[in-house]
Amino acid sequence: MKLFLHAHATHPDWRMALSLATAQLEAQRARPDHIDTPTLGWLYLTDHYAPAAEHLLDALRAQWPGVAWVGSVGIGVAANGVEYFDEPALSLMLGDIAPEHFRVFSGVRPLSGQSDFSAAAAQVHADPSGHDAAELIAELADQTSSGYLFGGLSSGRGRTVHIADGVFAGGLSGVAFDAQVPLISRVTQGCQPIGVVHRISESERNLVVSLDNEPALAVLLRDLKVDAKDPREALPRLRGTLVGLSDSGQTPAHGRSFGVETRVRHLVGIDPGRHAVAIADAVEPGMQLAFCQRNTEAARRDLVRICAEIREELEPEDLPLETALALHGSDLDSAPHPARQIAGAVYVSCSGRGGPHFGAPSAELAIVRHALGDVPLVGFFANGEIAHRHLYGYTGVLTVFTAVPPTPDPAA
To answer: What is the pTM of this model?
Structure first.
C-alpha cells in the first residue's frame, strides 16, 4: 500500500500558497512509499480564497492533468495535525484510486444520470443556504447500495461554494465510490445530554408541544433545573441549550454520551402560551429528544474513541514484534506506517468545534494525529456535517481510505 500525497499552506496570495503546497506534493511524489500517478484530488479552501476558487481549480488542473477534483470552502480547513482559521489557507490531497471505481457528480452531472456506475458510498459537499439540503442528502443516500454518505455543508463569511470538477453554488456535489474502494467512517459527537431521553408525544412542524405527555417547556426547565419565575437565571441557560433528536425505536444516548443516531439541533424559541419549545428541525410524535449542551471533555473522549475504533479495525491482532513496537511508539512526530493500512483520510468537523473549543489552536486535529499516526489527511470545518443519510451538527466525521485499488500501469 502506498500513501496519498497531501500538503497544506497559508499565504495572503493563493498563488504563493499553491506554489508552497505543490513543492510539498512533488517532494512526497519522489518517495517510494507515496503514490506517483494521482487520479482524484481533494481541495479545501478557507473563505479568504473563495473569490479565486475558479482560478485556483484551473491552476490545479494545469499542474495535475487528468486528476478529478472535489472539495469545498470552509470557515477553516484541516490538515494532518493542523487547523487554519481566520487566515488564507488551503489543504490538498491526491489519491490514485482507479477512475473506474469512482464518479464525480454535481448539479450538471447528477449521480442518478450515471447509469454505468454502481455507487456504494459517496462523499458529499453541499450549499448551506438550501432549505432542502436534508432532503437532497437523503435522496442521494438512496442512490448508493450502502446508504452511506460522508461530508459537510460549505461554510464561510461570504461566498460558500463547493467543488466537483467545477465550482458550484447551491445544491450538492461530490464523489461516489463503488464497492471496490474500502473505506471506514465514524461520527463523533460534541454534545452531552443534560437530562433523560424523552418521547415526543405532541408536535406541530418544528414545535414540540409535549414530552412524555407533559408540557415540553416544563420538562425543559426541569431538566435545566431553573425556575421560570427568575428570567435572569433561565435565559442564559436556555441560550446555551441544544436538542438531540433521534428517530423512534433508536437508542439516542448511551449513559452520558450520544450515539451516532442522534442529530443535534438548535433550540430556537419557546412558546409560553402553549408551554412548548421550538427547535431548528421538523419533528413528529414518537421521535426521541434529549436536551443537551456542548461539552469539551465529552467531545475529546468521543473523538479518541472513534480513532481507536478505526485503528482496531485496521490493525491485525498478530503483528511482527518490530511492527508492533513501531506502532505502539508512535507519537505526534512519527512517520506514517504502512501497517496502519491508511492511505489517506478526510475529516469534516463542525465550525463550532474547531479552535478554542478543544482548548488550543489545532487541538482537535492533534488528537486525530496522535490517535491515527502521521497519515495523509485533509478536511474542513463545516456549517453542518453529513454522515449516513443525515445532516448533523456539532459533530466530526472521520473517514479513512485503506488499501485502495491502484490505477492500472499503462505500460503493463
So the answer is: 0.88
Does 2.40.30 match the CATH number of domain 191-294?
Answer: yes
Which residue ranges make up each domain of the chain?
Answer: 5-189+297-401, 191-294
Q: What is the CA radius of gyration of the chain?
A: 22
Q: Per residue in 331-374, pLDDT tens?
A: 433 444 444 589 999 999 999 886 667 878 899 999 999 988 88
Q: Ramachandran region of residue 399, left (φ > 0), alpha (ψ -120 to 50) or beta?
A: beta
Residue indicated by cell numbers 473517514: 399
Task: State the DSSP code for 101.
Answer: G
Question: What CA–CA distance (Å, rounded) separates 328 from 311?
Answer: 11
Say if CB 279 and CB 302 are below 8 A apart: no
**pLDDT exceeds cutoff 50 at 410:** no
The CA distance from 191 to 402, in Å, is 29
DSSP states of 335-391 as a string? Answer: PP-GGG--SEEEEEEETTTSGGGGTSTTHHHHHHHHHH-S--EEEEEESSEEEETEE
Q: Supply φ then ψ for residue 101, to 5 degrees.
A: -100, 5
Digit-coded pLDDT (tens) for 293-325:
888 888 898 999 999 899 888 865 554 555 445
* Helix H or strand E encompassing 26: helix 14-29
CB distance 242 to 352 below 8 Å: no
Q: Look up residue 409 and give its DSSP letter.
A: P
DSSP symbol at 147: -
Angle between helix axes 363-372 and 296-314 (nearest 10 degrees) is 20
The more confident residue out of 46 and 190 is 46
Q: Residue 341 and residue 338: Cα distance in Å, rounded?
A: 6
**Whole-angstrom Cα distance, residue 133 to residue 226?**
35
d(CA 106, CA 242): 33
Distance CA 282, CA 391 (A): 13
Tell me if residue 263 falls in helix, strand or coil: strand
- pLDDT value at 16 more than 50: yes
